[in-house]
Amino acid sequence: GRRSAETNAALDAGFAAVDQTLLKLSRTTGMPMHQVINLFMKSRGRTASSINYWNLYSNYFKDNTKQELGRLGQNLAVGERTPSVTRRKEYAKFKEQFPDTYQDILDTHEELASLGALPQTIGQRGQAFQR
Question: Which tens digits make up the pLDDT trace of 30-44?
């Protein structure tokens, strides 16, 4: 059924408190808030991730092709594209090699790639971080 105004107010107050706690934890640890939330959910045996790690791995693979192909002992000729079958095998091997941290590695790579793509001053980055 429909929630009462009292229930909605209690939820809003609770969510605001949770948000402040997560923000404080994010600042204390230096980790992005989404990563703190994901780690919290993982520690409780749940996932809250709508992140498509296959897509993140594809970007990681593009930036680290030689290293990733090395996992399977393969090489790629200059200009040659990687078959999707090979990339799926590489992704499986990557997750196997880093079972507990592969998501963190891909999250961090994505964050670094997005920061590197933006022409920002240190002040602008600080303001973006505070948002």
Answer: 988 878 887 888 888
Q: Both tokens of residue 93? A: 């091997």
- From residue 125, how far is each of 22, 31, 85, 115, 131 by CA, in Å? 20, 15, 38, 9, 10
List of residues 6+ apart from 95 with CB closer than 8 A = 102
What is the rounded distance in angstroms from the CA atom of residue 120 to the CA atom of residue 116?
Answer: 9
Burial class (CB in 10 A: 0-12, 13-18, 19+), 64: middle
106 near 61, Cβ under 8 Å?
no
Q: Exposed, middle or buried: residue 68 (CB in 10 Å: 0-12, 13-18, 19+)?
A: buried
Taking the complete model, does pTM exceed 0.70, yes or no? no
Query: What is the Cα–Cα distance from 89 to 102, expressed in whole angstroms?
Result: 15
